[in-house]
Amino acid sequence: MERAELERRARALAVPGSRRILGIAGPPGAGKSTLAEDLARALGPGLAAVVPMDGFHLAQAELVRLGRADRKGAPDTFDAAGYAALLRRLRAPADGVVYAPAFDRSLEEPVAGSIPVDPGVPLVITEGNYLLYEAGEWAAVRPLLDEAWFLAPDDTLRVRRLIDRHVRHGKEEASAARWVSRSDEANARLIAPGRTRADLVVE
């Protein structure tokens, strides 16, 4: 699908005086954050804000305490209930700004209060792996999205992007490839069935 058509669909959701949430899901390395930021930039700050799911990563110290540090990125390494609670707040904006967390890849940690969402912004674009995942507390997310897209790029390209991303953030090439094969691709298999719950699949 052409980027212009995706922009048209997003713009149709951005109706001033209302608040809608567009969710962009897909496996690791699918290009979710890039597309979300591109759409928000095209619509402009008065019409769209991006709130990534990755801000709800558990802190590294908590992952170590839980014994999950070697599975960082798996569904149980996020605060899914906290993410759903934020989406509920964003669906019904009050008078004040809502602050959402971000994820700092240079620190590999979530950072609270990083993303201000003005109550007058009509479209929130949220993106992440597990927006269409049905297990546990993640099942609460899909009903909170007015529209959901699933990105399904070529897997060879996607895996190469993932390895390159890990290398940029400090991993050796061989270590990055092992992490992608063991962790990211295991998560991709969990995410794949979610495409059937999307309003649009972007090949």
What are the salient characteristics of this protein?
alpha/beta; Rossmann fold; single chain; 20% strand; globular; 7 strands; 203 residues
Task: Describe the secondary structure blueprint for this structure.
Layout lengths: L2 H11 L6 E6 L6 H12 L4 E5 L7 H7 L13 H12 L6 E7 L4 E9 L5 E6 L18 E5 L3 H14 L4 H19 L8 E3 L1
Parallel strand pairs: 1-5, 1-6, 2-5, 6-7
Antiparallel strand pairs: 3-4
Helix pairs in contact: 5-6
Structure overview:
34% of the residues are buried. The chain has one domain: Rossmann fold (3-Layer(aba) Sandwich), CATH 3.40.50. The strands form two sheets. It has a five-stranded parallel beta sheet, sandwiched between helices. It has 203 residues and is α/β, with parallel strands linked by helices.
